[in-house]
Amino acid sequence: MSGKRRAPSTDSGGSMADSPFHVVQTDQFSITYVLGLDDFPDTVENTDAIVTAPDGRRWSATLLTHREIARVMDRWSATGECAGGSYFQVHDLVIVREPGVDSMTRALVDIFDEYGMDIDVLPRLSDQVLRTRPRPAPEGGAG
Description:
The termini are far apart. The longest helix is centred in the last third of the chain and has 15 residues, at 101-115. A hairpin with a 4-residue loop joins strand 2 and strand 3 (30-34). The radius of gyration is 16 Å and the shape is globular. It is built from three helices and six strands; from the N terminus they run E-E-E-E-E-H-H-E-H. It has 143 residues and is an alpha+beta fold.
């Protein structure tokens, strides 16, 4: 897409204690990041997100940094999960180089700029059911 884009606006919906949701509005869609109790928008390295188009279509994404993937796999090598940490599989995974919702938002905007809103690059969420699934717990957490 050509032209200058408006900077995404954000709203955490209150303090971290009040809401785990951090919403970013872009020119094309909104992104609702689901932050953990210990997560902050500027430093989060492992989060789930829901991308919502103006017409109501929704997609899921799990966003992680390289560093977070390594931490999870190292922990799994000790716990025996995923064949002793020998693999990492997430169906809606987007890997980002830098932590934080700004980096994650740039990645999602670029994905939809590149592929458009009519292609299922990320898994589409059903209009009737929003499926929840556990995400890899941060180091030192349960999971």
